[in-house]
Structure formats: C-alpha cells, structure tokens
Amino acid sequence: MNLRRDVFQAIADPTRRSILMLVATQSMTAGSIASNFDTARPTVSKHLQILTECELLKSEQNGREIIYHLNANKMKEIADFIEPFRKMWDDRFNKLEDIMKNYQSKK
Asked: Which residue, 22, 38, 80, 84, is the most exposed by fewest CB within 10 angstroms?
C-alpha cells in the first residue's frame, strides 16, 4: 500500500526544510545535498524520498546521478494556502500597533 505523504508533514521537519533551502538556490545531487548534513547519507536519502513523494522536489536522472530540483509550482501552492493566515496575522498586528500608539499618545 502506497500512502501519499502530506506536504505539511514533510515541511514540518527541519532537515527537510534545510534541504528545500539548499535546492532552492541550485539543483543538486543527493551526494552534494548529503554533504551539507552531519547525518548518514541513507537518512538524507529518506528525506529526499519524502520530499519527492510530496512533489516538493523533482528528480532527474543524469547518467548515474540523480539531480534534485525544487518544484516551484508545489511551493506556490503551499504559499497560496498560507497567505490568508499571514494576512490575518498582519492585520491583527497592525491593529495592535494602532492601539499601542493611541495608548502611548494619551499618556
């Protein structure tokens, strides 16, 4: 049974977020990604598998190597989902800032 992984569970892990940050700047092989971490290479490979299953990374066979690329479309889907929450908190903080300014001006 092949269960589809949840993208938010995938990005909840700090190592996977770090991998995404690395691959966002340039496409990389598994070996070059693994060289940035103090964990065993199979551990990094498992993280890459999860990120690929969630479609956050795309893999491309290049000879004997697999090169990982960031899937910008999938990242945009995440950003689009989060945007209303970001806007809500921005609005709340702006209201709080206005209240604090009014309070300080009345002192």
From this structure: 38
SS (H, E, C) the chain: CCCCCCHHHHHHCHHHHHHHHHHHHCCEEHHHHHCCCCCCHHHHHHHHHHHHHCCCEEEEEECCEEEEEECHHHHHHHHHHHHHHHHHHHHHHHHHHHHHHHHHHCC
Q: For the CA atoms of 18, 20, 24, 29, what is the dihedral angle to 10 degrees?
A: 90
